[in-house]
Amino acid sequence: MDFSRYRKRSPWILHYNAGSCNGCDIEILAALSPRYDLERFGVLNSGNPKQSDIFLVTGPVTYRSRERLVELYNQMPEPKVVIALGSCTCTGGVFRGMYNVEDGIDRYIPVDVYIPGCAASPELIIDGVVQALDILEKKTKERENAKRLYSEPTTENGITDRSNSAQKIGTGGFSPEEMKPNSPERRENEED
Amino acid sequence: MKKIETTLESVVSDLTAFYDYKVWEFLTLNGVAIDEGTTEIQWIFSRYGAIDDVVIYYAPVKNSETVPSVVDLIPSAIISQREIVDMFGITVENSEKGLYLDEDSLSAPLATCRI
Amino acid sequence: MGRKIIDIPLGSQHISLLEPIKFRFACENEKIVDVSSDVGFVHRGIEKACTTKFAYDAVPYVVARICGLCAITHSLAYTTAAESLLEGVVTRRAKYLRMLLVELDRIHSHMLCLSHTAENAGFEAMFMRIMGDRESVMDIQERITGNRVQFDYVSIGGVNRDITTDIEKEIRKTLAFIREKTHGYLEEFTTNWSLSLKFKGVGVLTLDEAYRYNAIGPLARAAGLATDVRSETDYLPYNEIGYEMRVGEGGDIYSRNIVRLFEILNSITMCENILGGLPEGEIQTKMKGKPTGEALVRLEAPRGELMYYIRGEGKAMLSRVRIKTPTFASIPAFIEVFKGSEYADAPAILASFDPCMSCTAK
């Protein structure tokens, strides 16, 4: 079944606190509550990394949360978008240079959206998530039209034929003649 | 705030004589780095229902010495003992490392307060 | 059935947790027999940074970043300690404004905890209702201070902004609204079966255990232990503004909720009295010199007693800042409550403690 149509309409959020002060976390809750109502974009806060599309991280990454952060990121299925929420998540903020802190999550995982603010207001969180939805759609499209490097090998009379699959990749600008291992043109090129 | 000096040998007996769990609230265990290699350990109590009645027992501790555990007397001291072990790099009876710090963290961050 | 003991972890990342904390429950069938906890996920090293990176007059804004929910209590406790070392006197107006913000903070923090408890009971609609009403408190905080959460309102010598009659009118309106809503919650929390009957007798902390494990805050008061730093200190004139201690009985989740609800009502009354009796005067006094000596200050944060111990040696940098946060001191009591409970109740019990891990690990 093709889920890509529905992914933009209902992206699920995974939230992880990697050492923040709790301020941004309650602003996420506030953004999900009726006043700001992030859920009108179909966003649902889920606790399961394997069902989530958007990874919302707060905090400057403490030493003990490094492993969990990367583990949660790896468990999320592609395509996924990472949002760094709050000043300390983007750069380390007020915690920059403290002994148990890495300065910002982009030392560990790739970040798509940075939301500044200490604490980031719910309006900014909504803006960031909406931006993330666009990025998620773009990433979904990229995956659909991904360049195929190999075509499927064909099977005739029980013999698997892989000769066509290599040709379909293209010859990279060389003519088929040049691609032969011992062709004179090729040898000349190599000598240059 | 009343400060009473004690020593490592006598702290358990002093606290046993002093601490009545229905009168005194154990606040926390505190450490202050005095100079290189010496830490002042404080046991801080406050009286229930009284205005600003805080009593601090304190003892200087060398880093090679072992601080006796008061968990038998004050069960809630267990977590602050573990914190002191991490933060000052001293040893406390029956308290293991690793409440806050990992293997690659800075060890004993508060042991010396160089400015 | 055999008597096999199984380890079940909760955390560090879990849907019912706002913050990372890890518990490992040793369960015999459904009963929890032993608990071990790991609370160090949020350790940043603020105590050291306060003595090496930031001068003493910048520290109020750094310690506010320990916790977003009780930021005002952190900076206020530190400021009070620093002011006692500088031997400065704060004007009465500044003290009243500080109390106003502390009580507003308590109201919205308790509302967050109640909504979280309701969510853990599976009562999603109640969660949304309380969170929606909580926004009005956040609004007046924004009007007074300029920011919703990390408002650096308190500074050494006083407060950073004054309130005007416009704002005062708005606060009164909001307080009346919240009072009406809180009476509604009180009815809901006492009569609705999923919030009252389900929570009675669950997660019990007895009075003797509360004494023994030094429980503090609403956790202790729900168990019948009459301890509240607001009545045990005199930096802030709480006796002038109608503070009443509310002690519950039973020590279960239900009792904690009721204690919190009555504290919200009491805080609303206090805020109204503050506005009624707000003294005229300046909001800032100049403080001279550098902190010398040691000071210990205790304040009642929404979750219980907060203690600051600072020591200065006449330099711009302090030589020690010790922060004892409410949740940190309550962890032995938490573990005691978990023992003997059902595993299925664990998230609800944990939510009823209103734990704050950012405070705990600093």
The low-confidence runs of chain B, each spanning 5 or more residues with pLDDT under 50, are none
Shape summary of chain B: globular
The shape of chain A, in one word, is elongated
In percent terms, what proportion of residues of chain B is strand?
A: 25-35%
Label the structural class of chain B. Answer: alpha/beta
CATH C-level label of chain B: Alpha Beta
Question: How many individual β-strands of chain A?
Answer: 7
Most extensive interface: A-C, 42 and 42 residues
Mean pLDDT of chain A: 78
Task: Give the CATH superfamily of chain B.
Answer: NADH:ubiquinone oxidoreductase Nqo5 subunit
Helix content of chain B: 10-25%
How would you describe what is shown here?
- Chain A has two domains: 4-144, 3-Layer(aba) Sandwich (Rossmann fold); 154-191, no CATH class.
- In chain A, 34% of the residues lie in helices and 15% in strands.
- Chain A has helices at 4-7, 23-32, 66-75, 87-91, 122-144, 163-168, 184-191; strands at 12-17, 44-46, 54-58, 81-85, 113-115, 154-156, 159-161.
- In chain A, helix 4 (87-91) links the parallel strand 4 (81-85) and strand 5 (113-115).
- In chain A, helix 2 packs across helix 5 (122-144).
- The model of chain A has no long low-confidence stretch (mean pLDDT 78).
- Chain B has helices spanning 11-18, 77-88, and strands at residues 2-5, 24-35, 38-47, 54-62, 66-67, 91-92.
- In chain B, strand 2 and strand 3 form a beta hairpin.
- Chain C is α+β, with helices and mostly antiparallel strands and 362 residues long.
- Classes of the chains: A alpha/beta (192), B alpha/beta (115), C alpha+beta (362).
- Chains in contact: A-B, A-C, B-C.
- The A-C interface holds A 16-27, 29-30, 32-35, 45-49, 59-60, 62-65, 68, 72, 88, 94-95, 97-101, 118-119, 121 and C 12-16, 18-20, 40-46, 48-49, 53, 61-62, 65-69, 71, 112, 128-129, 131-132, 134-135, 138, 147-150, 356-359.
